[in-house]
């Protein structure tokens, strides 16, 4: 099998496992769904499941250590000399182009997360981990100190923008692709977020 | 008792409960500390404890619903016509001027949070709640739609900045007051975070 074909098959299996996890959770309830259920529904072995996800929760959230590693790899693929924010923006764009989940799956996930505190905790932990890894990736490229304030602010702003954009996109169904919604939000944030200057009124 | 005196006494009791909670957790371990232990150590009744905090975790984290309400009140006290970001910055400054925790308590809390996943989950939930309340506060003042992207980005950036600034301040002990560190970080973020333009290098 060629490398490209192997990668495509892996993405398909991963997407099938996520789809199965979301569908089972929506019909049976999160607590009742087991790894075996998900593997069966996606027509793979349990062992194959664990090649993709360490836990049931990771399959539901579509997260996992290899995902944040891949995101950092997307950052490392950016050319030297590119401004850090642009590099982050491009890394997210490449990363998202490799997953192509329909909006209905994102919305199903959002419903599950909002109704299950343990999933919400896990999702917040995933974002925090993504942020830590990107800070390490950025300081590795900009030569700043790992403890410095600015790369932490920069990456914090980027990850927050992605989180806000995903939630906004879920809350306001439209024909816009998620990748475009995220890219738009990152551009707005970089432009200083016009709202910075929006005057407040009397309470 | 005058209003000012009453407020001052309340702040002192609250600070004493937080100090007692942190000290007990550091000596006995988080799981072993009860609300009764904290109330006893602060020399108040259990009933008084619950006037300040709903749970043991809130006392350890110094959080609670009244704190995020107070932060939103600080925002509402800002004059009409002020740019939203400046209003948020001033609201955080006023809010922080009313709590005066020494850095050693923040560091003790950070140690506890990093070692106890349930405290970390709770702290993340607190930041998320603060963010939601501030979004509602900002859209109430700017007249934007509650579902709009920009106020969510604006507040997301502000809360992220505060979170990053607190962690950075804990990680790099100095003579700088926390309120000043947060104000500096908010100013850096508003200035576009110089790092936006920092070029990355070869990986």
Describe this structure in words.
2 copies of one chain form a homodimer. Chain A has 203 residues and is mainly alpha-helical. The first copy, chain A, has 2 domains: 1-61, Orthogonal Bundle (Arc Repressor Mutant, subunit A); 63-191, Orthogonal Bundle (Tetracycline Repressor, domain 2), CATH 1.10.357. Chain A is 72% helix and 0% strand. The first copy, chain A, has 10 helices and no strands. Chain A has helices at residues 3-28, 35-41, 46-52, 56-61, 65-76, 84-97, 103-115, 117-142, 149-171, 178-190. The radius of gyration of chain A is 18 Å and the shape is globular.
Summarize the structure.
Two copies of one chain form a homodimer. With 203 residues, the first copy, chain A, is mainly alpha-helical.
List the helices and strands and how they pair.
Two copies of one chain form a homodimer.
Chain A (H helix, E strand, L loop, with lengths): L2 H26 L6 H7 L4 H7 L3 H6 L3 H12 L7 H14 L5 H13 L1 H26 L6 H23 L6 H13 L13
Helix pairs in contact in A: 1-2, 1-7, 5-6, 5-8, 6-10, 7-8, 8-9, 9-10
């Amino acid at each position: 099998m060629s490398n490209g074909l192997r990668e495509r098959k892996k993405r398909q299996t991963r997407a099938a496992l996520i789809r199965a996890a979301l569908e089972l959770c929506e019909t049976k309830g999160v607590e009742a769904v087991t790894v075996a259920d998900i593997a069966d529904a996606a027509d793979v072995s349990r062992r194959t499941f664990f090649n993709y996800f360490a836990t049931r929760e990771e399959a539901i959230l579509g997260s996992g250590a290899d995902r944040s590693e891949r995101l950092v790899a997307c950052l490392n693929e950016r050319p030297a000399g590119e401004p850090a924010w642009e590099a982050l923006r491009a890394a997210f764009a490449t990363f998202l182009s490799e997953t192509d989940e329909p909006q209905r799956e994102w919305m199903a996930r959002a419903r599950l997360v909002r109704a299950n505190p343990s999933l919400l905790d896990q999702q917040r932990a995933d974002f925090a981990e993504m942020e830590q890894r990107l800070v390490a990736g950025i300081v590795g490229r900009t030569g700043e100190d790992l403890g410095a304030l600015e790369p932490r602010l920069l990456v914090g702003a980027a990850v927050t923008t992605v989180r806000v954009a995903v939630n906004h996109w879920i809350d306001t169904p439209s024909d816009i692709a998620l990748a475009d919604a995220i890219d738009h939000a990152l551009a707005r944030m970089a432009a200083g977020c016009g709202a910075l200057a929006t005057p407040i009124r009397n309470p």
